[in-house]
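Task: encode each sequence below as structure tokens.

Item 1
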Amino acid sequence: MIESIISSIKLITDPGISSEIDVFFRDKECVFDYEVSTKDSKYFVEVELNQPSRTIASELFMSLISFIQYSRFTYYQRNLLDNTIIYELVTAIDDREGFYCKVIFK
């Protein structure tokens, strides 16, 4: 599902998006470490929690969405793999431009 959404929009990267993600995670007490990177016009965030928890990861991700999402539409999906929670987010300004962000909580 998410691949068809990604292919239907022009993915953009903007230094402001990386900066907003960085600002969001920087002072969170529950976050031990995090890294933000871009590749192929996509954002990737790896987050190491002080105490891994599905609840904390979910709350952080929902807060992140409200902080960085665009106004036209937002779609996300969650995958659980052992002790890793992976969220994939696609959000767009209009029907043609938006960004993809994969957030991995460990």
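Item 2
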Amino acid sequence: MKFLKILILHSTIHFIHSTFIKSPNQIESFDYLVIGGGTAGEVLNSKDNRSLTHAFSLDASDVGCSTIRSPIDWNYSTIRLPNAYNRSLVYPRGKCLGGSSALNFMIATKGSKFDYDSIEKLGNPGWGWETFDRGIRKSENLIYKINNQTTEFNFLEKNHNQKGNIKLTFPNYLFKFWKNYFNSSYVLNHNPRALDTFGGQINGPWIYPSTIDEDSKRVTSETGYLNQPRSNLIIKTNTEIKRLITKRALNGKITIRGVEIKSNSKNLIYAKKEVILSSGSIGTPKILEQSGIGDTKRLSKLKIPCVLNLPGVGNNLIDHPLLWNVYELLPGLTSMDDLSTNLTFANEQIDLYQVKKQGILTNSVNVIDFEDLNGFLNQDEIQEGFQIIRDHQHIPNSVDGMAFDVNLDLIKHGTPMEFILVNRRSLEMKPEVGKSYISIVICLQYPLSRGSTHITSKDENIPPTIDNGFLNHPFDVWLLSKASNHSRSIINQNTWNQVIKKEHLPSLKVQSLDDFNEYVRSSIDTLYHPIGTASMLPLKDNGVVDPDLKVYGTNNLRVIDASILPIHLAFHPQLTVYAIGEIGAEKVLQSLIR
């Protein structure tokens, strides 16, 4: 079989050795150009490229370690959000090979069957539970040890794969207060402790695995998928895209001939077959708009010639808003806060990690509880919530059309709220010597609010605006307020009497619904889960890509990243984005056979 040339263009820093070049001039053209080396992009780049030919991947990065607000972070911020007291939120996105999988909290969750099937209901045949389940299984490599600790972790082997590229492990260290949470949630009639949420049902608390390997090291799409050099795969890092090179074909559609990259002189790289955008929910619409693909009215204001009018580009940005409820521990109890206030404890934990790969430094976020409305609201409250939705249909910057009905079904029958037990204070709090905290982080899973991201200039050096639309819809505010109040009920159970000293946030001054609404607006933050900005929807519904992930009106341009998800689901999207990469790679390979 002919070997295809693949080039990966990535504006990133790379961590491991592969086939990297400083200039693409070593090869005049490539069969496939992959723009971006993030969570989904590296899945594409890793496929058995002997059945592709010559590929080139471009990415905008360099070399670094996993940390937010660092050289491997794009360091974005949102606009001042009008419904959150004009606060601007920090918005990290990975600027390294591995993308945001090198920055995230390593949480490995899978959505429910009901949730994934909702994507298919939006006009996307073949994009339901069976497809996502297969894609996630294909990427997954669950590693577990049979020892005394295994009994703490419920899971069913039949729901998992142990041969994929992305290693998952259950925690070596599990802070002891998880049992208090499970006990109190049971008393409050939450869903029972889940047996294994990877089988299509996610209701109830469970101890989740993390993208951490058996040596307690972070697993990213780079370490998982780019661990073997390939002669026909070229990766060019420190490369940012100016625009896609377009041409009108005889069939009336646009053909992407290649890309122009930022350099001192005009630098063009050509694609013989396909160009694949895998730059994420912020980067992908930016490149499309820079190339004249987007809303013609918006582009004309920037004096960018519109080659393809797709008003959906950059719109439908959906994100998971979160709220911290923080509780101070009784004296003598420790949490991760002690790493920054107790030098002796910190050194002990560093030694324990370096020598034995054990201790608190091996821990991620593992205790997660997805709940349906009945898990934290009574029937009168549920009816009150739906009345708010009925009273506020068709308001600006919120879900509408066919997606409204699907979103409403998710709220009614899915798990609209996530409660996460975290072994530390909130990210905005400063450390205090002698004080340790735990938190219940509350995350809204199916927001009705919608935002957008768009370029504001022809200059590709100017970052796009990001409006994640938080709290545009009053139901989102109301439900977060109710969940924050419910978090207090969890901690007020007797099982916490020997653990909690007092509530720190929102504090007992917050009592009425108006008080909680105020707390939500003044403290809302993000779980960093943007999706939807190149949505897989019918064209009439402002879709950007079709179910084959091809951009409408083009012959050879696909988007394969989180931006194609048209609606938010109850999950942390990392594993789902790996699945998108796996499924997208299959579609690219299938196109060779046709």
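Check on item 2: DSSP finds 13 helices and 24 strands in the chain. The longest helix spans residues 574-593.
End of task.
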